[in-house]
What we know:
Keywords: DNA-binding, Transcription, Transcription regulation. With 302 residues, the chain is an alpha/beta fold. It folds into three domains: 7-92, Orthogonal Bundle (Arc Repressor Mutant, subunit A); 95-160 and 267-301, D-Maltodextrin-Binding Protein, domain 2; 162-263, D-Maltodextrin-Binding Protein, domain 2 (3-Layer(aba) Sandwich). It has helices at 7-19, 22-29, 33-47, 63-92, 101-118, 169-172, 203-209, 224-232, 246-251, 274-277, 282-301; strands at 52-55, 58-61, 95-99, 124-128, 142-146, 154-159, 162-166, 188-191, 219-221, 237-241, 262-263, 268-272. Strand 1 (52-55) and strand 2 form a beta hairpin. Helix 1 (7-19) packs across helix 3 (33-47) and helix 1 packs across helix 4. The longest helix is centred in the N-terminal third of the chain and has 30 residues, at 63-92. The relative contact order is 0.13.
Amino acid sequence: MPQIPPLKALWAFDALGRAGSVALAAAELGVTPGAISQQVTRLGELLAVQLVARSGRGLVLTELGRLYHAEIRRGFAALEGAQDVLDRAREDAAIRLSCLTSVLMKWIGPRIFDWQSQHPGARLSLTGSDIEPDLIRGEADFRIYYGGRIHPAHHAVLFTDHVVPACAPELIAGHPLRDPADVLAFPLVSIVWNRRFAPGPEWSVWAERIGASAPESALSYSLSGSAIDAAVAGRGFVLAQISFIAEELRSGRLVVPFDIRLPLSEPYYLAWTEAALAKPDARALHRWLLATGRAQGIISAG
């Protein structure tokens, strides 16, 4: 097998060939110009070929030097390409969890840090989207979605959520509520659900539950997270999913004067592929998601 010159000498020669001067090559590699000259001279001696010639106060590649540089440049390019492949493989090793946007904002987002603290080496990529990814084609590893859509990947029920009227405590300060119907006298914030989902819970249904009629909503949002934020800001009552307002209730930013709940018409599901479970820590995340979903279902049902 032919003897390969030392890597340091090859690096120095490659840098000189690309930079065109000893000073620039030295700056690129973080060494002195003398070190570059020494390594290039050593390489020529090992190969028994004159690779460079003096030109003024610098060095230039000879004809043989240019031919040799072109070949080793291809070799270094191949090594750089191999590193790129490895970097991409590492990126692909990240577990990609796709969720409905509000689920990411209000349910998974605040809770995922608990899982990460137990798996500090895990790499996780979270995406919020109302467009269903194709898990079979590798667009995501796990997907949390709503409704009875038959997913081509493996799937399991996470939990069925409930909604409850919630508001900022400042909204009702000085206005004691004696009856659930008193809620309807305040501005009502509505959530307009995506058409592809079953009809979401509406104020009219909640009002009917308590034997009253609901006025028109003062404000409506297409995202549950935005509607909840509006309620926190004191804009009115919102029929909020219990899973989405745990932190707001805990911190006192939202209150529930009357705990009268309506169930969502369908549950949330978790979908995944067998290939996803082969990734590092993916099975642990899978178990945690299912367990967290079961616990949420109990909390939401009251």
